[in-house]
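Re: the 419-residue chain
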Amino acid sequence: MIFGGIKGLNIFRPESVSLQDARLAVMVADVRISNTSFRDSASRRYITGWNGTVVSRLRLPYDKASLAFDFVALDYSAPDKISYAYFLEGWDNTWVQAGKVRTANYSRLREGEYVLRVKAANSQGDWGPETKLFIRVLPPWYRSWWAYCLYVAVVSGMVAGWSWYRRKQARMAYEILVAQMETRQEKELNEKKLSFFTNITHELRTPLTLIVNPVKELLGKAEDELKPDLNLVYRNANRLLTLVDQLMLFRTAESDLSKMHVSRFELHQLCRDTFECFSQLAHSRQIRYTFSAPDHPVAFTGDQRKMEIVLFNLISNAVKYTPSQGTIKVALTDTENGAVITVADTGCGIDEQLKSHLFEKYYRGKQQPSGRETGFGIGLYLVRQFVDLHGGELDVRATGIREPCLPSGCNRLSRMSTF
């Protein structure tokens, strides 16, 4: 194309004209963290990538995740025709067409990794390259990795504790069941023994009755030198008959223990008669066997049969578990508060830890070193029941014990007081 001019011709060739690529680059001008510019010292600590002009990386706590970004495209030929768009990866679903608005606002961002992508279009609608800013929002302490490790440890500990507790409860239940079974078996064994002896008592009672009555008649006819021996035979045969009756009584003791046949009797004579029942046995075992009581009668109101059982069991245990050359002292004392009966022996003694079980039904201690078997655990149980029934007290003392040995009633010192 040729055009005329003042100075001559002007030649214009259109094919030689080329358009300049004017795609716009975007720069993040400012970042406001909780409405505070990143240039402020309070917010600058959250900037992890900055070349002195452009911010490229942020690292924020969860409570500071309210952000505002100002961006600008460097074009001065037609700034009013520039359009902007931004997209926050991890938060936005699509690009946000901001038009001529040069600010992007985000609040309450959750913990995680984000990438802010910003771009600008020139007046011809051509989009320029993207500018990226990397953002990391830290989780709160209760959602941090070490907090989750702590939660796992706590839950694991709770599960382990619950499992241990369940195993302990199961083991305890098993031990209780075993103990109950052992107790039941021991009780059944004792019941079988008692049933066996009860059946024997029915067979023994009649011949014993036939022995006691003739001996009683012989006492009235015998010479004076034979009377002591016959009297000993009569007392022990009569005592054996009483024991047979007591064994039959114990079979019905569950319902009859609280029944009393009250009468007034002479306690001094009852103690002496019971004491003399064991004199021959103590003499044969070379035991120093003594009895002391007031010179005057000691009247007592109560159940004579039950008191006889109490005395017999206390003295019987003392004789049974006192070794040869030992000593047994039976004493009756009359005080203002009532009668005090003391049975003291030099036997094997009682362990202090076992005293609380001494009067339990069917309770038996360990065997003696000599291998002597224990009793049935009945005698002292009856003693406790009958003394309580009379409103009395039992005092058990043990001193000088070298080995714990507690058959039913093996005692260093047994005291029954305050009737």
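The CA atoms of residues 95 and 419 lie 104 Å apart.
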